[in-house]
Design brief:
Blueprint: H1 2-20, E1 22-31, E2 37-44, E3 47-55, H2 62-73, H3 78-100, E4 103-115, H4 118-142, E5 144-145, E6 150-155, E7 160-173, H5 174-199
Parallel strand pairs: 4-5, 4-6
Antiparallel strand pairs: 1-2, 1-7, 2-3, 4-7
Length: 200
């Protein structure tokens, strides 16, 4: 009987520790002409518990790209968009609540962009600035920002070139994040069931 009480006590202690335990995760993405890769590192209590580097596949030929675009376009029908929009409206508050539990410690994103045409390079660089600015604004609005994000776009007017490097470090409490993620999944399932019931 004593060992059962001890086991229950140990489980409760481990649950409390895991609920408040902060996990630090660093993501690094490098897109280069020669080689592109994605790197992830996870630290707990200052100890590296997980590290992995994954090389990204090389660019496919134009024929393969065209085939993939045709296949992907079949997913973006009007009905699919309506369903996805309804699901998003059902879970967006919980998603933003989850983002609010995440701390952003570092975000550096630099891109070198060249199309071979100076005019087109200027237009695309301006568009990329807008995209990056929107992403940073989303982070600062909903996440706890510890260090100001850094973004940069370097136009290359002399040649065709696309190089991009992005490093992001976030931290979150394990238990709180699991609970919030569980609420999101449950809400998605509930919304899908309601949609299927209405369509039936």
């Amino acid at each position: 009987m004593l060992w059962v009480i001890f086991l229950l006590f140990l489980i409760i202690i481990l649950f409390i520790i895991s609920y408040f335990l902060r996990i630090y995760t660093t993501f690094y993405l490098s897109l280069q002409n020669e080689m592109s890769y994605f790197h992830i590192k996870v630290r707990v209590l200052g100890i590296n518990v997980y590290k992995r580097k994954m090389e990204l596949p090389e660019k496919q030929d134009d024929a393969t790209d065209a085939t993939n675009m045709i296949e992907d376009s079949k997913l973006f029908t009007s009905d699919n968009w309506k369903v996805k929009l309804k699901l998003w409206n059902a879970v967006k508050d919980k998603v933003f609540n989850l983002l609010g539990k995440i701390r952003l410690h570092k975000f550096d994103w630099t891109t070198e962009l060249g199309t071979g045409d100076a005019f087109l390079t200027g237009i695309m660089s301006g568009g990329l600035w807008s995209v990056k600015g929107s992403i940073v604004r989303l982070m600062t609005d909903y996440m706890t920002v510890k260090t100001k994000p850094t973004i940069n776009v370097v136009p290359i007017f002399q040649k065709k070139q696309v190089n991009s490097e992005c490093e992001c470090m976030v931290s979150f409490r394990l238990g709180q994040t699991i609970v919030a993620f569980f609420h999101i999944v449950r809400q998605i399932k509930r919304s899908e069931n309601n949609l299927n019931r209405n369509l039936a």
